[in-house]
Amino acid sequence: MDIRTNMIAGWTLAASGAALGLAIIGSMVYGGERPEKMGYAIEGVEAEGGASAEAQVPIATLLASADPAKGADVFKKCSACHTINAGGASGIGPNLHGIMGQPIAAKPGFGYSDALKGVGGTWDWEKMSAWLLSPRKFAPGTKMTFAGIGNGQDRANVLAYLNQQGSNLPLPAAPPPGAEASPTGAVDPKAQEAIANATANPTAEIANTGTPTEAAPSLDPAAQEKGARADQ
Asked: Residues annotated as region Disordered (predicted)?
């Protein structure tokens, strides 16, 4: 009886030792430390605390090469909450037909959050880009749980697709070379001013700083008078 008891105790001790050894080996091979950032990185999705490098490119630049067909593919992930056909019913989110150029948070028959109502303005290219980049940053407190589209070209493609669905706004003017987008996805105000000035005064040149320089000065009055005499 004692021999049988000792054998059982021995096997139990051996099994415990083997399990402990396997646990130690497993922790050495696979590691058991807590990662610095939880979860998995997803390509094109904005990381907490900052946007991807592509998100810093002005949306007007990306729209020049936007493909609405590719935007339709990206929009499929939005179709769980939104319809986009004319007269379509609202779901978890509002119907988006003709949304570009319309007042923000004003689609009839949908209950918007106070956060989005407080933004004001219309859904222009810059605002829609900023919203798609990060709804929570665009309207803190929004009910929208979508993480955002960090890939700038994907976002431009979606904008082009949305614009085709009952809006047809003209594309924005391309910013000067070297202009960067602000954290909201909009072009820097100095660059916008440069575009406006360059349009109003075609003789001005846009410098690398994004501000227009004066056009070349004309001849002084004495030189003009001498030239006029020579012509007579």
From this structure: 168-232
Whether the pTM exceeds 0.85: the reply is no
Note the pLDDT tens digit of each residue in 47-67. Answer: 444 444 554 789 999 999 999
Is 145 within a domain? yes
The residue whose two tokens read 């709804």 is 135
DSSP-derived secondary structure for 171-196: PPPPPPTT--B-TTSPBPHHHHHHHH
User: In the chain, how many domains are there?
Assistant: 1
CA distance 58 to 187: 6
Q: What is the pLDDT of residues 121-173, one digit of tens each?
A: 999 999 999 999 999 999 999 999 899 999 999 999 999 999 999 999 999 98
DSSP bridge partners of 195: none
Give residue 157's domain range: 53-164
Residue 148 is classified by DSSP as -
